[in-house]
Design a protein that fits this description.
alpha/beta; eight-stranded parallel β-barrel; two-stranded antiparallel ribbon; 10 helices; 12 strands; 14% strand
């Protein structure tokens, strides 16, 4: 069996979880909620991806506060109604698929909040406009020139956001997810604190690299106090701009997170500056995952234009990451892992309603396969 189809255990104080294979569905924003509530689109979307053959599905960036959502249409987990809707739709989606581990990515968008959906242009919705609100950030520096300035957070604001992350983690446990991931990448609030591009504070939360890491570490530590399960974080390992956040700082932060039993590092990049210059190519972020894995010893997830099964297998064989995550590739090929299994000689679990679908030459792809008819 290929390495892509071997089990992998993610550690945690409560014992951790074992994934059936090394493929993960990365979180993908759907911009399809009203008032932060999960709905039938999410039921369809999750059920589809839970039938992909991947070992884990991470639910999209989910706002820990209403004003921390990326758009007015983003999923939230900040009140009882959000919790109830997410619980109901996730339970129903899971009933339509084999057993797959489910994580949720908790997020505060900071200065990138109050944005229009991508198909509406993605621009900032100003506070004076319908559905817009005042954004918050480490410093009063806009994401793009000419935008309304975000509000620089004071200590009370920091405490409120940290408490919101903790409360969202408690709600996530009640929802029944198997693990939690913090969104510390792509220019959202945690990343904004890390990056000198967005964080120009002069207090204990700004200036030096250690000071810029302080608030993200405080959030992680506060969640770990109430949540003993698998707790990972997605990080942008590079801002791709001069004098921005660096891979070396990402290693330092990852090592610091060991004190709070971080379970894994999900390695991405970019998003904090429109001046970023990214050299896009297949697997363009894998070297960052490799660096973090080698210099910290932590489990890592590689992501970024990983689209081919052989490519994914080679990343694992070379020891560049422990897991691979795909996002848009799953939207285009929802059964990507089935195809990978036919190519690499792996096996997956599938819903019995699909057992009859396999081509004659690939009858061994499903671990369980019983077909009978009179």
């Amino acid at each position: 069996m290929s390495l892509l189809f071997t089990e992998f255990k993610l550690p945690a104080p409560n014992g951790g979880i074992t994934l059936a294979n090394r493929t993960v569905v990365a979180p993908m924003c759907q911009y399809s909620s009203i008032d932060g509530l999960a709905n039938d689109w999410h039921l369809f979307h999750w059920a589809n991806l839970l039938n992909s053959g991947a070992s884990a599905l991470i639910i999209e960036a989910t706002g820990v506060t209403a004003d921390g959502r990326i758009t007015p249409h983003c999923l939230g987990l900040y009140n009882d109604a959000c919790e109830a809707a997410l619980t109901d739709h996730l339970q129903r989606a899971r009933a339509l698929a084999p057993a797959v581990k489910v994580g949720i990515q908790l997020c505060h968008a900071g200065r990138k909040a109050s944005s229009a959906a991508p198909w509406e242009g993605g621009a900032l919705i100003e506070p004076s406009q319908p559905n817009g609100w005042q954004t918050k950030a480490p410093s009063a520096i806009p994401q793009n020139l000419g935008e309304v300035l975000p509000l620089a957070l004071d200590q009370a604001g920091l405490d409120e956001i940290k408490a919101a992350f903790v409360q969202a983690a408690i709600r996530a446990q009640r929802v029944g997810v198997d693990f939690i991931e913090l969104h510390g990448a792509h220019g959202y609030l945690i990343h904004q604190f890390l990056s000198p591009v967005a964080n120009q504070r002069t207090d204990e939360y700004g200036g030096s690299s250690a000071n810029r890491m302080r608030f993200p570490l405080e959030i992680f530590a506060a969640i770990r106090e109430v949540y003993k399960g698998v707790l990972g974080i997605r990080l942008s390992a590079s801002d791709w701009v001069a004098d921005g956040w660096t891979p070396e700082e990402t290693v330092v932060l990852s090592n610091a997170l060991k004190a709070y039993d971080v379970s894994y590092i999900h390695v991405s990049s970019g998003g904090v500056s429109s001046a970023q210059k990214i050299a896009i190519k297949p697997g363009y972020q894998v070297d960052f995952a490799k660096k973090i894995k080698e210099e910290t010893g932590l489990p890592t997830i590689a992501v970024g234009l990983i689209t081919d099964p052989t490519q994914a297998q080679e990343i694992l064989e070379r020891g560049e990451a422990d897991l691979v995550a795909l996002a848009r590739a799953f939207l285009y090929k929802p059964r990507w892992v089935w195809e990978a299994a036919t190519e690499l000689g792996g096996q997956v679990e599938a819903a019995p309603q699909y057992w009859r679908c396999l081509p004659r030459e690939h009858q061994n792809v499903f671990k369980t396969l019983k077909i009978g008819q009179r």
